[in-house]
Structures are given as C-alpha cells and as structure tokens.
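Journal club prep, shared notes

We agreed each person brings one worked example of a sequence with its structure written out as tokens. Mine is Histidine kinase. I'm keeping it raw so we can talk through how to read the token line rather than staring at a rendered picture. Sequence first:
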Amino acid sequence: MLEKRLVMPRIKFLKPVYKTVLAHIFFWVLALHLIFNIQGLVDSFLRLYSGQRYIDEFFLIFPTALLFFYLNSWYLTPKFFSSQKWRYLFMLSALFLFILGIGTLIFQYFLDVGYASQMDDVVHFFDFSMLIHFIVLGISSSLGISRIAQKEEREKKKIEQLQKATKLNYLDHQLNAHFLYNALNSIYAAAIAENAPQTTEATLKLSEILRYTMQQGNNKLVPLQDEITFIEQYIGFQQIRLGENYPVFFKKQGKVDACFIAPLTLISLVENAFKYGVSFKEYAPISFELNVTEHEIIFASKNNIINDKKVASHKIGIQNLKDRLDILYPQKHRLELDKTKGQFGVSIQLKN
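Then the structure, token by token:
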C-alpha cells in the first residue's frame, strides 16, 4: 500500500506531460506525411548515411521549421502578442527572415561542395522553404494565441472565484461588525457613566473604525482622505494600547483631495506592522509613508523584525493582500517586499 501511495502521485504529475509530447509527435508525423513523402525521406536519409553526396531539401527545411514553430508559439506569441503587438510583428518578421536566410545559406553551401539535390536551384529552394514556413507561421501563431486565450480564461475564473469568496467574507465580516458596533456603543455608555476616560476614548475610536468598515467597505472607491482618516483612527487606537510615547510615525506627502481608492486597501499593511513589529524590550519604531503624485498612490510600511518565525505568517497576510489587489487593481498595482537589516518593509504602488 505504501508503494502505491508513493508512485500514484508521480504518475498523475507526468500524465499531462506524456499527453503533450504524444500530441506534438503525432502532429509532426502527420505534417511530414502531408508535406513530404515519408518513404522518400527515408530513402534520402539512407543515401546520405551511406556516403552518397545527396541532400534532400527536407533535412534543411524541417529543422528550421521546427525551430521557428516553437520559438513563435512558446516564446514570441505568449510574451508579446497581447501587450506589445507591434514589437511582436517586428520580432516575428525578423525571426522569419533569419530562419529562411540561414536555411538558404546552408543549402547553397551543400551545393557548392558538390552535393546533389532534387532542388538544384537556390531560388526554388527559397520559394519552397518560404511556403513551408508560412504554413508553420499560421499554425504556431494560432496555437500560441489559443494558449493565451486559455490562460486568460483560467485567470478570469480564478478572479471570479476570489470575488465570490471576498464578497462572502465581507458579508460575514459585516454581520460581525454590526454586532460589535452595537456592543461597543453599550460599553461606551457604561464607560461614560463610570467616568473611565481611557476606556471611553478607546471604545470611541474602535467604534469609528467599525463604522467605517460597515459604511464604506462595500463601495468600489472612496476618497483617499477618508482612507487616511480611517488609518489615523486605527493608529490612534493602537497608541492607546501601546502608550502615547511608543514610536509610531505617519508621513504624508502630495495632494489627496482629488484622489480615490478602493476602501480598506492599505489597512492590511498597518495591521501587520502593529501585529508583528511591536516590542517593549527594544526600540522598535513603526513607520508609514504615503506619497501621492499625479499618476499614482504609494503607501509603505516599515517595522522591526521582532521574531523571524512570525515573518512567514506575515507573508500569508501579504499574499491575501496581493490576491485582493489582483481583483481591485488588475495590471495597475505593484507590491514590493523588503527584508533587510532586521527590518520588514512593504510598499504598494497604485495607478490613479
């Protein structure tokens, strides 16, 4: 039973590879059968192998066509077709002419050293080679574009699943937030009655935090200033817990009045910094920086690494943030991590 458990996953992993290899072999055998006389190719190979000075044009066209096929379908089309079409067309044309030129020069060399061929004219060879490579061009481009479409469809389904999961999580969170908000109002009233100013202030700040998540959390965009106020309320709540003298810094630059942002986008960095960067045994400042330009919003956090074992858990939260950014800002965001000199830094760049 143990051997079956070890072998079965390996077979399952290799199965798609076998299918791909077999499909490509079948395709090329079929192509050779349709374009060339396979029996004639075998005879030509035997004549070449036996030392006769005879070269069939297939032995030069097939390798260059094979190289052109995979360079186009596996590299050029996936890398450039969707985002840089003019560059794709330029590079494809250059590769096409280069492949044809190399094949023709090699054929000319064999003729010059005395090899016979069914095509003893370089012009005829070039014309025939160009026809074959045009066919290969059409097939390889179609295959590459088809693979792009399949990849985009998979990514679309993944995003839809993430959106559904995010919406469900938000609804659960909203229900819990309503309960907590009502409970905090009761605690706030009791704290006032008991004349407990610190408890009153903490409860009020926490109420404001929950109110923001309930009111703005389901909107697509909110004013950036509202998000900043929310972050400042959260920082204020944490400083009640840590003490007013704990080193927390929030630097803001640029004009925020005309900017909008998806709600609750930046709070994950703030939460993680307080969760993993607080220490009462050493000087461990926590800093946040917001820089707003005409074209982008940049928000960064930095905190000391108090415990290396917690960094892995920290990165789980960062991965969740990345998934959310993929949904909210597709192709319009950049997330960077920086772990150096005992500090952990995270930066988000969002295009306006």
